[in-house]
Amino acid sequence: MIVSLIGLPGSGKSTVGRQLARRLHLPFVDSDHVLEDRLGCSIRTYFEREGEERFRDMEQAVLDELTRQPAGVLSTGGGAVLRPVNRSCLKSRTQVVYLKSSPDELFRRLRHDTNRPLLQVADPLGRLRELYAVRDPLYRETAHFVIETGRPSVGTLVNMIVMQLELAGLLPSAP
After folding, report:
1. Exposed site from 28, 82, 108, 145, fewest CB < 10 Å?
2. Rounded to an integer, what distance in angstroms lies between the CA atom of residue 171 and that of residue 156?
């Protein structure tokens, strides 16, 4: 089984994904890290040099490959759901968990982060609200499970995901 984490930038996909993988004894893969390895540069640099469309082409190829693995926890880029083909392969090949965060909460977490290309704008909170408006319906359409991130610790979020997977019969229940 592959568990994929989707959500806006800063929703905790990589951090929660690493802990979830450890808890489930599965390999962890961050699709953005795989992309950067393949591109030979940061996503931000590639984005600026080649544009979003070329980046999304590379992202689609990487997601197609990663969702064919036998098992693992996969953290995806925030925009992975923008293409219907990505939504389809995530939903059909993996158990998708949407880490849902409000734009205000994300802004609080990300206001000092300079590595996210889509947030390097005059009004990052406004940009997060726009991203949320566009992407939230796509995340919901793709997800098997929605976890509100709010303010719980990473450990609490991992427990919530494990509990959802157990309730769905996808993991053996704890004794």
Report:
1. 108
2. 18
Measure the CA–CA gap between 161 and 167, rounded to whole angstroms.
10
Beta bridge partners of 97: 5, 145
Reduced to 3 states (helix: H, G, I; strand: E, B; else coil), residue 160 is: helix
Q: Enumerate the β-bridge partners of residue 3.
A: 73, 95
- What is the signed CA dihedral for 64, 43, 110, 136, rounded to 10 degrees? -30
- Name the residue among 115, 127, 132, 120 with its Cα closest to residue 36: 115
Count the helix, strand and coil residues of the chain and give each as a percent rounded to the nearest 5. Answer: 60, 15, 30
pLDDT digits (tens, 9 = 90+) for 150-159: 878 999 999 9
pTM listed for this prediction: 0.93
Phi first, then psi, for residue 148 (nearest 5°) are: -75, 125
